Amino acid sequence: MKHVLKGDGRLGHDLDPQDRAPQDACGVFGVWAPGEDVSKLTYYGLYALQHRGQESAGIAVSEGSRILVYKDMGLVAQVFDESVLGTLRGHLAIGHCRYSTTGSSVWENAQPTLSSSDGGGLALAHNGNLINTPDLMARLPSGATRATTDTEVLTSLLARDPGTSIEDAAADLLPEVKGAYSLVFMDEKTLYAARDPQGIRPLVLGRLDRGWVVASETAALDIVGAVFTREIEPGELLTIDERGVRSRRFALAEPKGCLFEYVYLARPDTTIAGRGVQATRVEVGRKLAREHPVEADLVIPTPESGTPAAIGYAQESGIPYGQGLVKNSYVGRTFIQPSQTIRQLGIRLKLNPLREVIAGKRLIVVDDSIVRGNTQRAIVKMLREAGATEVHVRISSPPVSWPCFYGIDFATKAELIAGSLEVEQIRESIGADSLGFISLDGLTEATTLPAERLCRACFDGSYPIPIDRDNVGKFVLEAKA
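and the corresponding structure tokens:
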């Protein structure tokens, strides 16, 4: 396991490194399937979940007597190759691709985490973010863990009592864990999965011919040929072994699924609560056109995040849809520092306008969100320079005004442009002729779920799990150390 920094060349939405898009915590995948090549199934499952985390990746496997973990910094395809996967043999596996929300982005914090005791080993992968991590950390002896993540703390707590089964330990511990957690974990013989009582982050169960799969999104089931069975319920613990799938409830369900999964985080080919994400995003675009109509000649998306809503906007408004911006999909984060001349090009490294499409046109530009505003400001300027006569910006989410403590690495409220400016002030800041955000009610209606079953805290500041501001933050454990 080498600790090597690698350029990623990823298909990213980070058009401006100073204006990151919201980042999800991670993707998780687990498989119990004797006779199958579980490491390759996990590899492809993580490949389907790569959009949920691009900092590190890892797989844990067991053949029944010991757990082996391989992880490293970088994308799934950079961390694993045929030779590595060939050494990861067994009948069950879990995998993880990470974006850090608690703890720095370093090898020590990559997942799955591994803990051992007299009773055997435990590997765990986590999507979400806990809000009582320091309290949980206080239960462990000093120096019990070198990592600085909530996941490492969970793993150590679950494995510390060799006289208790993993299933019973989880059922005892999880009711005391606060925050968002969709977990896959394993000992040498058994696969487990659990979801917090609010079900903030997604987690689904699928069936293989010779086993079972657990994953963050249905798209990961599709890629490995698993048939969707059901969503894992909030407050539910699953145990999967040769006896099949057993369910145990450790808390009453209080569903509060993340609304931002529909806006940006989930793949468009994923299904949440029985509705395809693509259909939801197109419907948001239609509602956006009804809420914020404007006379124009062409609707264009900010690729690729704004595409479904732009399609919906064009359908509802009757204004033609077109491609006005071309994205260079292979420009991601880089460890080669650009020269000052290249740096001044900024967003043009990743987006370039089609001048013959744009020149002389009144444009509607659709994107999924505005975080700091730098990206939209640069796009508006670029389109005007390419000859657009008007630029009207439409956003398929309400203003993001509040930080997330449940697994999305939003900026602080002070850094969020909507945290301090009204819509008209934001319009002036980005230089658009007009600016319209979908209403919170409109976005909610497009999901077909009632508002009381959704977490909408980043839009309205109403947090379903009370927050102790002194006990949260990406570096909370490092600060206390």
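(Above: one complete record from the training split.) The chain has 17 helices and 23 strands.
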